[in-house]
Design goal:
heterodimer, A: mainly alpha, MetI-like fold, 15 helices, about 70% helix, about 0% strand, globular, B: mainly alpha
Chain lengths: ~300, ~325
């Protein structure tokens, strides 16, 4: 169909509207980006809109030189990497077991697992469970509760079911053990779906702060997101104490650090990893998202 | 009959023996789900006790429905329920209208504009992956009194005479939450509608064009009816989450004294009562349990209704 002049006007109108959407979506991040590269004292004057006025890397230096923030960054990286590797490995393993049609407990275990997506004892019983398991204020409280995800298992199992069943059967006849089949056949063939799940888990783990807040409030276990949360709530509320490193960071040098500029730099440090994996995420999530709804 | 039964029993044991490997792998998962998802349900007994953490289960004092009675006579409970429902409804309506409108408009970007459509999609999905901490930080920057861009724009356009303290106005808080949700998830939520639109028969558009409908006419009379059933099913399913108005954004942005009254949701209530007061565990558990049970009932009802609607569409 050729477009008439009227159509072209409508196209232009919609395109213009979409440009506004793009600006609204991107500008808040852009504003934070330029604040993070601008001198903190200068930022207080305001009217920082399009470009940094006084370039500096000092805000980023403070992020990585302030001991507590840097440690929190390392904890964030550690929990994300470990959770992702373990969750993908175990979710894949369970998905493989549940994909075996002849498995006697298949139906039972599937229902038992799917139920976990809907039942929720609530925050306080959960807290007492972790306490009696000795997980409170340990690094393991980040890892153990998310070793397997029911939803991830379903997604991976759907993918395994789409593979030819003869692959597993012939390996079985050749005498391969189940673990061997998982390692040598399932994992290599499922790499696309495993990568997708890995990215979901990684983003979720990297972004979470609530588990630090409730289950691991100890400073040594703080994460980047939780440190940002502390700075943010101290700037929103008058009663809450600022983290002490804010004052330390400004004392140690002639330059100044404000909560706002430090948080801007931390926001960028926390956002960049997501923006880096984002193109990979996007490649898969449309198909998986729709598939999961149809499930 | 008896022999048949024992036969199938034998067969079952035989199968179990043959599948030792699989069972050995599956068993730890069973234990894992049991411990981390089912065992905490036991903790719900707290809601019926005068729970003291240092006593064992058998030493606890049972108080029946006392905590629930206290809950329903607590004026704060009605306040947080009002906030929860208010914000949920705003989120639901705003979220639906914007995502559908966005999907409809995106669908119009065809031909030479197709690549532009891909760019818009990529950018609009992005906020979905940012954490609430980051999003709340961005919101408070944009809405700030000094240097906040929204105040500057409104001043420059002459729409306001003096700067507005957005984060301190109780009447604006629900809308700030609503529009932040739109910003974060409009693009992501539009995916499902775009997928539904692709399954509409192109012949319908041609027929509508021959009948003299313009672009917007086709949007209104072909595209929208084409995704109507998807919209209805999703609307019903999402209504099932009505008591989940969110937690993080209200907790982070709403803790200043000025808007506390309108910001606290049922989840924050559970957290603050459960952990904030000594001996609050039992009361907090009862409040959480109330929410879970009511949610479950609404969710099951909504799923049932959505199922009927879906079947009707197939018929």
């Amino acid at each position: 169909m050729r477009k008439s002049i009227g159509d072209k006007i409508i196209d232009a109108f919609i395109a213009f509207f979409m440009c506004i959407v793009i600006v609204v979506m991107l500008y808040p991040l852009w504003n934070t980006l330029i604040t993070s590269f601008n001198d903190a004292r200068d930022s207080i004057k305001g009217s920082l809109y399009l470009w940094p006025r006084k370039w500096t890397l000092f805000n980023y230096q403070s992020v990585f030189k302030t001991d507590k923030i840097f440690k929190a960054f390392l904890v964030s990286v550690a929990r994300t990497v470990i959770t992702t590797v373990l969750n993908v490995f175990f979710s894949g393993l369970l998905a493989y077991v549940l994909s075996r049609k002849e498995f006697v407990f298949r139906r039972f275990l599937t229902v038992f697992m799917v139920m976990t997506m809907y039942i929720n004892a609530g925050l306080i019983p959960q807290y007492f469970l972790y306490r009696s398991l000795g997980l409170i204020n340990t690094f393991w409280v980040y890892i153990l509760p998310s070793l397997v995800g029911a939803f991830n298992v379903i997604v991976i199992r759907t993918y395994i079911n789409s593979l030819p069943a003869s692959l597993v059967e012939s390996a079985k006849i050749d005498g391969a053990s189940d673990m061997r089949i998982y390692f040598n056949i399932i994992i290599p063939l499922c790499l696309p779906v495993l990568a997708t799940v890995a990215l979901w888990v990684a983003v979720g783990s990297w972004n979470s702060w609530f588990d630090s807040f409730i289950f691991a409030p100890k400073q040594e276990l703080s994460t980047l997101q939780y440190e940002m949360m502390k700075i943010l709530s101290s700037s929103m509320q008058s009663g809450v104490k600022q983290p002490d490193y804010l004052a330390e960071a400004s004392q140690q040098s002639r330059n100044m650090v404000t909560p706002n500029s430090l948080r801007a730099a931390m926001t960028m440090v926390a956002t960049v990893p997501i923006l880096v994996v984002y193109p990979f995420l996007q490649k898969y999530f449309v198909t998986v998202n729709i598939g999961s709804v149809k499930e | 009959m008896k022999t048949k039964n024992s036969n199938s029993k034998k067969e079952f044991i035989n199968q179990v023996r043959k599948q030792k490997g699989l069972i050995l792998i599956a068993a730890p998962f069973f234990i894992y789900f049991f411990v981390f998802s089912y065992l905490p349900l036991w903790g719900l007994t707290m809601a019926f006790q005068n729970y003291k953490p240092h006593l064992s289960f058998f030493e606890q004092e049972w108080v029946g429905l006392l905590h629930f009675k206290n809950l329903f006579t607590d004026p704060d409970f009605y306040r947080v329920m009002r906030n929860t429902l208010g914000m949920s409804i705003i989120n639901l309506v705003l979220g639906f209208v914007t995502a559908i409108a966005f999907a409809l408009l995106l669908n119009e970007l065809t031909g030479k504009l197709y690549n532009f459509k891909r760019i818009v999609q990529t950018i609009s999905y992005m906020p979905h992956f940012l954490s609430w901490i980051i999003v709340c930080g961005l919101v408070s920057n944009i809405l700030a009194m000094d240097g906040g861009i929204l105040n500057e724009i409104l001043l420059a356009l002459g729409l306001i005479k003096e700067k507005i303290h957005f984060m301190g106005k109780p009447e604006l808080f629900w809308w700030i939450v609503g529009f932040t949700n739109v910003w974060k998830s409009m693009g992501w939520n539009s995916i499902i509608y775009l997928a539904a639109i692709t399954s509409i028969d192109p012949a319908l558009y041609e027929a509508a064009a021959i009948d003299g409908y313009g672009r917007f006419g086709r949007m209104w009379h072909v595209t929208l009816p084409g995704i109507k059933s998807t919209i209805i099913v999703l609307l019903i399913l999402n209504a099932g989450w009505i008591l989940n108005a969110g937690f993080e954004i209200q907790y982070i942005l709403g803790t200043n004294g000025l808007v506390l009254d309108v910001s606290e949701t049922i989840d924050i209530f559970v957290l603050k009562r459960g952990f904030g007061r000594s001996g609050g565990f039992a009361f907090g558990t009862a409040a959480g349990m109330f929410k879970t049970v009511v949610s479950a009932v609404i969710l099951i009802l909504c799923n049932k209704i959505a199922g009927w609607v879906d079947e009707e569409r197939l018929v």
